[in-house]
Design goal:
Layout (H helix, E strand, L loop, with lengths): L4 H8 L7 E4 L5 H8 L6 E5 L2 H13 L6 E5 L14 E7 L1 H10 L9 E6 L3 H10 L2 E11 L2 E10 L7 H6 L1 H6 L4 H21 L6 H23 L5
Parallel strand pairs: 1-2, 1-4, 2-3, 4-5
Antiparallel strand pairs: 5-7, 6-7
Helix pairs in contact: 4-5, 8-9
Length: 237
């Protein structure tokens, strides 16, 4: 199976021999790929709703992978048991706040997990702050462009995060360290969205938005400073 760039970037982070749980699997493309490529001998693929899980079953059956993909209907990490021996949890395609909620509510199911591979659709900063504040270090961060959309992928592991500055932490400490080719595009997109937020706040008729406008302006200034540095120090093509 050929994966999309987003799923391929996630698959690259999974070491051979891993036992994987794909939470919110949707069509089970990632589990099928992992089994086909012999990255994993067994994958748990779960979803909260029956319809996407049936779609996942059809995909697994079409590629003759049903024996190695354990399909489970359930809420978040509640589908897992200690006997599963899962070492890698993937949660992709959900909002950052939702992913944090899944991790919080399923904290007791994460014992023995070596890595979390997370791909938030939004609020990635919130998710990073949650991870750092709940006993996880951000091991790797990558960016991938699929169509016109830029995705952030975070690999976290149990441990102490070295970065403590909230702004740098929310932006992505490993991204700041390595400044991958798509980093400037990410910064420009964040700046664009914040300018929209600022404009919307300025048009608001309520009188209690001045503090929020100041927060947005401070964040904009910080992002623009990081962008200027990244552009000035970008490696030549």
């Amino acid at each position: 199976m050929k994966l999309t760039p987003r799923l391929a970037a996630i698959a690259e982070l999974i070491p051979p021999g891993s036992t994987v749980a794909d939470i919110g699997t949707d069509h089970a493309y990632l589990p099928v790929y992992l089994v086909q490529e012999q990255v994993s001998q067994r994958v748990i693929a779960s979803d909260l709703n029956r319809s996407p899980l049936e779609a996942a079953r059809e995909t697994a059956a079409a590629f003759n992978c049903l024996k190695k993909i354990d399909l489970r209907l359930g809420d978040g990490l509640r589908v897992l048991t200690p006997e599963d021996g899962v070492d890698t949890v993937v949660i992709a395609g959900l909002g950052g706040r939702t992913i944090a909620g899944i991790l919080r509510e399923g904290e007791d199911r994460l014992t023995g997990i070596r890595r979390l591979i997370l791909q938030p659709m939004n609020e990635s900063g919130y998710l990073r702050l949650f991870l750092a504040g709940n006993g996880y270090m951000l091991e790797k961060e990558s960016l991938v462009l699929e169509g016109r959309r830029l995705y952030e992928i975070i690999q976290a592991a149990p441990g102490r995060e070295s970065e403590t500055d909230p702004f740098r932490l929310s932006l992505g400490p490993r991204l700041l360290e390595k400044r991958p080719p798509l980093f400037t595009a990410l910064l420009r997109e964040k700046i664009r969205k914040l300018r929209i937020v600022k404009s919307s706040l300025q048009r608001a008729r309520r009188g209690d938005v001045s503090a929020r406008i100041q927060e947005v302006e401070t964040e904009l200034s910080s992002l623009e400073e990081v962008l200027s540095f990244a552009v000035a120090h970008r490696d030549p093509d």
